[in-house]
Amino acid sequence: MSRAKTAVAFLALSAVWGSAFLATDIALQTVPPAFLGAVRFDVAALLLFGVAVARGDRVLPAARGEWRPILAGGAFSIGAHHALLFSGQVYVPGSVASVLLGIIPLATPTLTRLTATRERLSAHRVVGLVLGFLGLVVIANPDPGNLLSSNLVGAVLVFGSAVAFALGAVLTHDSETGMSLVSVQAWMMLVGAVTLHVTSAALPWESAADAAWTQTTLVAAGYLAIVAGAGGFLLYFWLLDRVGPIEVSLLEYVIPGFAALADWTVLGRVPTRATVAGFALIFAGFLLFKRDAVRAELRRVVDRRRGRRPTDD
Length: 313
Prior knowledge:
The chain is mainly α. It has helices at residues 3-27, 33-55, 67-88, 94-101, 104-114, 123-140, 144-149, 152-172, 181-202, 215-248, 251-267, 273-289, 291-305.
């Protein structure tokens, strides 16, 4: 698969998931958070099962090994991630939560090593990840006093949501299955939806009966379910299969840029100086992380201009 196609997919997913924050803000005005997440993945699962059946794909897992990516991705990357995040945000402010979620690209390499897969990190990649994380901190600009006084339970829950997402990526990468990606994703969405319904029913501060499905809410929820949910996670696991859990985790450094762009376009919110500085750090960290690939691509460009045949490094 060409690098250009992978890069386009990476940016497209970043744009979809970045703009999903705006859609979430709109939908949360009339629908409780955990229940919104559950409905989102109900619709996404139904849609993907329908696509799988229409394509003639095998829908039912035929071996025990085929349940591994389904249960890992559904329970961790979808269910546990959203359940813990929704619960944690009851106790901690969004600025703290966004910083804690930025731990995903740092947690992924650690979890990857612990699960003994093939991924390894060099020193310059570690520095790149740290720079990206610092960029997120600058953008969020959390008050140290608030950070220290935030409810410990909430902070642990949000941190746990980041670890759950990273763990799901690590456990589903390298999994072998004879099922199509659409079928696997449909099952993941269903597992995640069930997890979130249980969470919604268990949370004392929300009730599905409080949901008000206005026309605006339906449009926002539809975007979350169809575009960001079904389409987004299909693209995510497509990328995960091609570039691995460490590189795909860099989405967490690009997504905030598209979220800010969506806010500016729709709501007129102009990025602050801290936001610009933070994205500069993120971009520097990304370039450092991808240093070898960037160098190789630059060599190919130079070779083409000089009339030489590009090398494949």
